[in-house]
Structure formats: C-alpha cells, structure tokens
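As a warm-up, study this chain.
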Amino acid sequence: MSQPTTVLYALRPGATCVTAGGAAILLAPPHKERLGKLPPAQLQALKNLNAGEQIEPGHDPGVRAVLESLAEGGWLTITVRSGDTDLYTIRPFKAPPARPSAVEQNRTLSKFAIMRQHKGQFVLEHPMSWCDIDIYDSRIVGLVSGLGTEEGAVADRLAADLKWTGHTVADRAAEDQEFSTRSWGAHELWFHRLSNLSERVLTWEEFGPTRWADGEFPPLPARKASYPGDPITLYAPDIETLRESDPSITAVLEDRVSCRDFDDSAPITLEQVGELLFRTARTKLLRTAKGVEYLSRPYPAGGAVYELEIYPVVRNVAGLAAGMYHYDSFDHVLRPVADDSVVERMLKTSSLTLSEGQLPQVLFVIAARSGRLMWTYEQVPYAIILKHVGVVLQTIYLASTAMGLGAVAQGYGDTAAFNEAAKVDELEECNVGSIVVGSPTAERPSASR
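Now compare it with the structure written out below.
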C-alpha cells in the first residue's frame, strides 16, 4: 500500500449537470449552481461527468480547477485509488469544510462513527458528517478500525480524509470532555438525525411515505390474529352520557398528575378497565383503500394506520383474574395471553417507578406491530411509532383523570419479557411503551366527575 494515490471525481448521487450554449448549470434540487461560459476542455469534462463517468484531473489546469471547485461545493464524489485499485469513495451530502492543514498522530474513530455492510460493500458513516465513505478494499477496513498496520501514502491520505470528513477525533477522551458530545449516546444521535430531514435526505425517494413495499409484500392486516381462549366482554360506557357528565378538558389537563401510590384494598375494577379502554383505544372505523386497511380510534395516528396494540398485565383488578391479556379493540374484549412467571417479571420491573416498590394493579403494555407502518414509510417509522406512544399515554392519562383513576407512564419496558409472554417475534411486534393504572390512595387529587 505504499504506492502513491490518485483521485477520481464523479457527480454525487442525485446531481446532474446541464450544458447548453457553452455554459453549465449544476442541479440537485433544491440546490442549483450556474457556472456560466466555460472553455471547451472544461465543458467536455462536465459532459463526461453528467454521463456518469469518473474523471481524473489530468494535466489540464483548467479542468483540474473546475473539478476541485465543484468538489469544494459538495457536487462531486471523490474516489481514492492506488494503482489500479479503487480504495474508497467520499460521497458528500453538502459542501465540505476546508481540508485540515495537519493531522495529529493517533487519531481514533468517533464514538458516533459506524462501519457497516450496505449493498455488498462497507460504508463508514457519522451522523454529523457531511459525507459517507464507501470502502472497497479490506485493507482500508483494517486501517479505519485501527487493526491495520500498513504505512505509506495510502495510510496518510486516509488519515487526512477521515479528519476532514469528521469520522475521527484527536484522542479517545475527546468526546467525553464536552457535555454536548458526552451526553448523547451514539444510537440516540443516529436515531435523531436519520428520522428527520437533514442533508442526508437528498431526495424523497427513500424517505417518508414511499410505499416501498407495494408490489413486493402484502400489507399487514389492521387486525391482529386473535389469541385462543374465551374472550372477556368489557363494559362499554355511553359516550353521549359522558359528554354531559365528564369534567372539562381544562379540568383534566390541570388536575392530571402522575400517581405512584395506589390503594390495593379497593383496586380498579373490570368495569373501569373496560371503560378506560373503550374511551381511549377502541377501533371505531375500518376502511380499505388501495389494498391497505385504515382505522379510526379515539387518538390520532399518522396515516390512519394504527399499529399499536394494548396488553393489560393484571395483578389486582376486581372481577378479573391475574395474568396478561390482549385488548381486542375491534370487539372490545380481552383475550387471555399468559399467566406465568414472565408476567410477574414485567410487573416487578414496573414497580421501580411506584412508591415503596409497590406492584401495579394493572400495567398497560403498548406494543407496535411495526410492519403496519414500515410497509409504507422509510427511515421514519420507528420515530412515528414513538410519537404515537406519547399520544396514547396522554390519552390514557386524561381519561384516567376524568374517571378518578391514577396513572403513571413508564420510561422503559422489559421488551424481552413481553416478547416471551406474548409469543411474538420482536421484529414483527415489540414493546414500545407502558403505563400503570389503578385506584389511587385517598390523598391523590382528582378531576373525577
């Protein structure tokens, strides 16, 4: 790897170059750059780029100047080659910063950097970088990971490029010395950047409601297959009566508090569980459009897909045996799921947020049939799921307050215990939220009607 390196330029993905009348315009919506009149050699180079060719700067100073200028503007990919072997390509999303003048010894990968396989090759990514790096040679993988021992022009070029692209830091402790970088976990920063619009989203082709699976996979039905066992019919309140008797929205918003102390001597009843689920999570409408089933429930959901399911995990509910149930929001019934030690594990985990280690009277586990959303959306479905969880939690909070019940949302859940108890594949249905509900102690204020 001691051979000198050469550089080849190509238009970055999503960019085009239009030439007419001796002038050129670069386009990558919403960005546009006019180059004006150009000498023949430069104009030909741009035509070659637009045809998908890789170009070496060559000996023409004008061609070299225009290519370097376009690279500085973030219009071109930069491929580093050693001999006849392409080593890696810097693939920009936006204009890069100026190249560093010097590179410190012993630089190391940022804690946010990720190297993974994608479409048959390695790619090095960083959520805050202006580019990704496609890697074609296993020796570069070794150098990036710190396991390679090669020295020479290639290693020096790679070290300089990784500092320029922001994938490395000066030393291993650098990102722990500033609060802003120490406070973010790698998965959190990646999730934030990739599930929102950023420079990485060059087109809408792979972001948002693309319906990418249409024609390849059938959409998931809106209704989950029923668990076996006799259903338990739930009480359904009269909504028109509740319109007249309920406290106002201002009252429940102002009176809502997180309740951590519950009265086990007078627990929540099966009728109250039924009313709470009817008010917050029942399916009110099912319709089909273009082969996809859409729903309506009391809370809003993106795309009317409604991927969330509720599993009441019961310890102490008057009129209902302990165990884990699935809420069938279509028939408004509970169906038994499990009553073994896994359920006990879920309840014990939830007790950490209750006063003096109490166990919940009932824990509503919220699960997502993720494929319902992932059939339509790219990059953003899990972020949408978490937004829906927040909506459901607030809906349960407010309805509980109106009913005189106590509730406290959980900041975590035992997803492994859920999947074991519910007997579902985590990639098909996963625990994404939970909330404890029960009868509060007398000291708790309430907006009860």
